[in-house]
Amino acid sequence: MKYYVIGDEDTVLGFSLVGTQGSVATTTEQVQNALSKALENKEYGIIIITEDLANMIRPIVDRYLFTETFPLIVEIPNRFTRGKSKDLRALVNEAIGVSL
Question: pLDDT for 24-58, tens place per residue?
Fold first, then answer.
């Protein structure tokens, strides 16, 4: 089982440092395309998405959160959520338990 991350450039870069593939997205269309790409690959058991991007496609994300059993979708804050800069290492550690 693999992880896949959808987020801003910094988030995707940070996760790539621990071997997690992902897509950078900034628009609703890019988020939808990235999620579709991740869902097509059955090896991805956990899809990590930043909260701001998940909010762009909330009905789709909620369907997977509340009715689908696979894959697991995990929402994480991006680095600048609520005006606070969060250490990228902490985000990776919280999401997948890998300490950089």
Answer: 999 999 999 999 999 999 999 999 999 999 999 99
At 97, list the tokens: 């338990």
CA angle 80, 81, 83 (to 5 degrees): 70
Which domains, ranges and CATH numbers included, belong to the chain? 2-96 (3.40.50.10580)
Cα(39)–Cα(48) distance, integer angstroms:
12
* Residue 5: strand pairing partners: 22, 48
Sign of CA dihedral 7, 56, 63, 91: positive
Neighbour order of strands in the sheet with 21-24: 21-24, 2-7, 44-50, 72-76
Non-local (6+) Cβ contacts of 29 within 8 A are none
Q: What is the pLDDT of residues 57-80, one digit of tens each?
A: 999 998 888 887 788 899 898 776
Q: What is the pTM for the complete model shown?
A: 0.79
Residues in the chain, how many? 100
